[in-house]
C-alpha cells in the first residue's frame, strides 16, 4: 500500500499508480520528465546560492580591507 506522500507526483497532479515512481531529493515524481525538471530546478538553485555566497564573500573582503586601521603607521605589512 502506498503512503499518502506517494499518491501524486510532487510537480504535477498526476497519480503515481502507473507503475514506476522516480524519486529525487525525497520527492516522488511520476515521469522521467518531471524528474528532469526537478533536477534542473535544484541545480539552478545551487548555482544561484554559490554565486550569492561568492558575491557576499567579495563584499565582506572589500569592507574589511577598507576598515582596517593600523595605530602605528610604521608597521610593515608583508
TrEMBL record:
Pfam families: zf-FLZ. Residues 43-78 are annotated as: Disordered. The keyword Zinc-finger applies. One of its GO terms (molecular function) is zinc ion binding. Residues 4-46 form the FLZ-type domain. It comes from the Eukaryota. The keyword ATP-binding does not apply. A zinc finger (FLZ-type) spans 4-46. InterPro entries: Zf-FLZ_dom. Keywords: Metal-binding, Zinc, Zinc-finger. Residues 56-65 have a biased composition (Basic and acidic residues). Belongs to the FLZ family. This is FLZ-type domain-containing protein. It comes from Quillaja saponaria (Soap bark tree).
